[in-house]
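PROTEIN ENTRY
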Amino acid sequence: MAALLALPVSAETLKIGGTGSSASLVERLFEEFRKQVPDAELFQPTPPLGSGGALKALAGGRIDVAFAGRPLKPEEAAQVGRHFRLARTPFVLASSGGQKKNGFSLDELAGVYSGTQSGWEDGSPIRLVLRASFESDTALLRSMSLAMAQAVDDAARRPGMAMGQDDLETLKLLTRTPGSFGPTTLGLLSVTGSRLTVFPLNGVTPSLATLRSGSYVWSKDMSVVLPRQPTPLAERFVGFLHSDKARALLLRYDYLPYAQ
């Protein structure tokens, strides 16, 4: 955060912070936005601030726009300005090299997290990649079923488990670990060009079509948050996010826009 405070910025620099999954998407959106505002520049803190960190930075005046991957807590909403859900994308379980032709039922998924189902169809080991207990990915996994809630807690207690500290590190662990298995989103895989295998859950393949129809029920929101007194450039960027061009770009990268 100290580097962020010390960074010299021009009047046309837009400082955006948020989840790791938002970083690449923000870059694509800003590339399109710059066609309208060619002298605008983008700054994103690295490593990603995360939803909570970005909201604190926004409330403290250190960034201009926050992208959050979870709903705002009441105390967070009280410290910022207007906010809205931009889009949602399927929440998925993915692997590098793991094979399971028909995907996983929720009971099978609980078996993977509890450790009772430890191998792929070819007998090779499933190498689970976890997220911290406070992360939204973990909360979503726990919400899938009572068995999953217990299994995710069991996995967290096993020693030596791989742990992704943010969305991008989790994606790197999934990509670099043969037989990996863990949570990410279809949008992040799409915008980064990842070739991980994504599995059906309860017989439904994750896609924008199945998300839109309601047959695939697990997704993650991307929300945009402004401070109480946004800069003119931030207002202009948020206006662009409501445009047809932004909506087309979101769809291209497997994000289903919300009607604004």
